[in-house]
Amino acid sequence: MQTIGAEKDLAGQKILVTAGATAEKIDPVRFITNHSTGKMGCALARRAAMRGADVTLVCANMTVEPPPFVTVVKAESAEDMFNAVTSRAPKMDVIIKAAAVADYRPKTVAEEKIKKHDGGMSIELERTQDILAYLGAHKPAGQFLCGFAMETENLIENARGKLERKNLDMIAANSLRTKGAGFAGDTNVVTLLTKDETEELPMLSKDETADRILTKINTLRKG
Ligand code: CTP
Ligand code: CA
């Protein structure tokens, strides 16, 4: 097994990973969310911990169990995740944001269950805060910030735009259109973008993808 005798090359590093999908309440029984099981974020947290890092996993509504030997902080909404992440961020050496964060939330949350009536209905939404953009704007010297981008078209172009706009050191781009990539599966196909490089990884298990991401971050930090 990879766990036994894993090289502790990340010992001494504080790594924060986010995983899962935030849920934004409409009323006491309904919410708005994104597809995300949390598998990719858990793979990153698991591998980082096995490689000796001090790992904090901020997770929202995952369908998988968090890995052992990591500090787990639960968040429900984008606002909870914002608070959980930004309060811990200044002390972190590396932050990897694999969570699917809702971009919009209902402007008001109904206190009682909304009853149906004839005809359609609409819900007014407002923007949530972009956690990653906030982290990029407040990044302490020496901290490494890695985002994820899930796209259905123009993968590299869109992901590169996010890398630049959010002041990231790296972004892991995956396309919903690629076989073996995406939400619920155990494999992923990602392209790692930095300011100067574009590295396409083959289809790998989420644990192997996590290892490649962590190794690249470690190499770039040392460089
Ligand atoms: N992200 C975040 N806070 C938000 C929205 C996104 O921290 N409110 C992070 C995600 O965790 C991910 C990265 O930003 O690491 C990119 O998320 P994505 O949804 O692909 O991009 P957006 O910038 O939200 O743009 P869009 O959804 O319009 O493509
Ligand atoms: Ca988004």
From TrEMBL:
Its EC number is 4.1.1.36, 6.3.2.5. Binds 1 FMN per subunit. One of its GO terms (biological process) is coenzyme A biosynthetic process. It catalyses: N-[(R)-4-phosphopantothenoyl]-L-cysteine + H(+) = (R)-4'-phosphopantetheine + CO2; (R)-4'-phosphopantothenate + L-cysteine + CTP = N-[(R)-4-phosphopantothenoyl]-L-cysteine + CMP + diphosphate + H(+). CTP binds at D103, K113, F148, K162, K166. Residues 15-223 are annotated as: Phosphopantothenate--cysteine ligase. The keyword Transmembrane helix does not apply. Keywords: Decarboxylase, Flavoprotein, FMN, Ligase, Lyase, Magnesium, Metal-binding, Multifunctional enzyme. One of its GO terms (cellular component) is phosphopantothenoylcysteine decarboxylase complex. Pathway: Cofactor biosynthesis; coenzyme A biosynthesis; CoA from (R)-pantothenate: step 2/5; Cofactor biosynthesis; coenzyme A biosynthesis; CoA from (R)-pantothenate: step 3/5. GO terms for molecular function: FMN binding; metal ion binding; phosphopantothenate--cysteine ligase activity; phosphopantothenoylcysteine decarboxylase activity. Residues 10-218 form the DNA/pantothenate metabolism flavoprotein C-terminal domain. Its cofactor is FMN; Mg(2+). Catalyzes two steps in the biosynthesis of coenzyme A. In the first step cysteine is conjugated to 4'-phosphopantothenate to form 4-phosphopantothenoylcysteine, in the latter compound is decarboxylated to form 4'-phosphopantotheine. Catalyzes two sequential steps in the biosynthesis of coenzyme A. In the first step cysteine is conjugated to 4'-phosphopantothenate to form 4-phosphopantothenoylcysteine. In the second step the latter compound is decarboxylated to form 4'-phosphopantotheine. In the C-terminal section; belongs to the PPC synthetase family. In the N-terminal section; belongs to the HFCD (homo-oligomeric flavin containing Cys decarboxylase) superfamily. This is Coenzyme A biosynthesis bifunctional protein CoaBC. The gene is coaBC.
